[in-house]
């Protein structure tokens, strides 16, 4: 059954030369605005022949490193610097960012669990559908900037996924490496079905995702990684000129072969992690203790690492509930190619 056209209307012309700042307008009707619209800011830069890059952030509303980096890029990238087309959407899920949350303040939707989307669904599914059917088909390469948000803190990395199409996988991996974060990763997703990543990859595009920090804030160090990475991403495709800027130290390659990389809590309480982000962990090491906050005199629950590796992500708030991911241990490898 064919879907109706997207209800989203752009105020920009994707084929016009030069730089345009506008909006993707999605009609809504709420208590605050009977005939209103969600206004998703967008910048389109067109200058001559070349590929199209789609740069996105704010897929989750509380992941500020990427949002800030793309807002800055939209103010600084000039049309004469570009060969081809760059489409910048710094805040995909505006209702989530407005609420300062991961998920939408309008319908509770988690945009990155809503793809491929639905023009007749809720606001979040309607945003996903516009990307899947309108924006993604326009692009050759796509970069989606995430970080840990309020509940995770993540060692800054750019990543690709294992794909059936080896050429597409290699091109995506090359993009993740040239992003120039301290870590480049082959990422394993707990459930990839409804991700934007999967929607883009299934259209055969080169796709790079990132995790650039977290905790619901930014730091100067992580902003520098995000801003450098966004420019680095554009250079290999000839979209902008320049030399790739490398991270300060040697770039580390890490692989996540399977779900055992994720340490998830089976208890609720107060979390004490024994390792900092980036530290080396050995199988059997005590990685975390969880304390019962309701009483004194009880021993903590001890969690041991199930594999060797490096701590690439951790729960950010100290309070932890059953099911929360408390740590992610990835394997350091010499090469990510297969
Ligand atoms: Zn995210």
UniProtKB/TrEMBL annotation:
The keyword Metal-binding applies. GO terms for molecular function: hydrolase activity, acting on carbon-nitrogen (but not peptide) bonds, in linear amides; hydrolase activity, acting on ester bonds; metal ion binding. CDD domains: M14_ASTE_ASPA-like (cd06252). Its cofactor is Zn(2+). Residues 49-234 form the Succinylglutamate desuccinylase/Aspartoacylase catalytic domain. Keywords: Hydrolase, Metal-binding, Zinc. This is N-alpha-acetyl diaminobutyric acid deacetylase DoeB.
């Amino acid at each position: 059954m064919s879907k109706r056209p997207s209800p989203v209307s752009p105020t920009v012309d994707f084929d016009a030369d030069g730089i345009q700042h506008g909006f993707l307008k999605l009609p809504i009707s709420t208590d605050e605005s009977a005939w209103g619209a969600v206004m998703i800011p967008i910048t389109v830069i067109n200058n001559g022949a070349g590929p199209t890059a789609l740069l996105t952030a704010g897929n989750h509303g509380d992941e500020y490193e990427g949002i800030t980096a793309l807002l800055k890029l939209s103010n600084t990238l000039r049309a004469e610097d570009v060969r081809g087309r760059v489409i910048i959407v710094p805040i995909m899920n505006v209702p989530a960012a407005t609420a300062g949350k991961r998920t939408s303040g309008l319908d509770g939707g988690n945009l990155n669990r809503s793809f491929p989307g639905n023009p007749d669904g809720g606001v979040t599914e309607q945003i996903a559908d516009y990307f899947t059917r309108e924006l993604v088909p326009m692009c050759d390469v796509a970069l989606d900037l995430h970080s840990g948000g309020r509940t995770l803190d993540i060692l800054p990395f750019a990543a690709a996924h294992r794909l059936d199409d080896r050429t597409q996988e290699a091109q995506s991996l090359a993009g993740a490496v040239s992003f120039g974060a301290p870590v480049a990763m082959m990422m394993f997703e707990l459930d990839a079905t409804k991700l934007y990543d999967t929607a883009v990859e299934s259209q055969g595009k080169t796709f790079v995702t990132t995790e650039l920090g977290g905790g619901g804030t930014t730091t100067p160090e992580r902003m520098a990684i995000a801003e450098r990475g966004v420019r680095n991403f554009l250079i290999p495709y000839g979209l902008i000129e320049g030399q790739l800027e490398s991270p300060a130290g040697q770039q580390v390659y890490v692989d996540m072969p399977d779900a055992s990389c994720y340490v998830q809590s089976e208890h609720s309480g107060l979390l004490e992690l024994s390792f900092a982000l980036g530290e080396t962990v050995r199988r059997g090491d005590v990685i975390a203790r969880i304390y019962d906050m309701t009483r004194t005199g009880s021993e903590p629950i001890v969690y041991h690492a199930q594999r060797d590796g490096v701590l690439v992500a951790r729960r950010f708030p100290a309070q932890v509930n059953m099911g929360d991911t408390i740590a992610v241990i990835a394997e350091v490898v010499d090469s990510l190619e297969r």
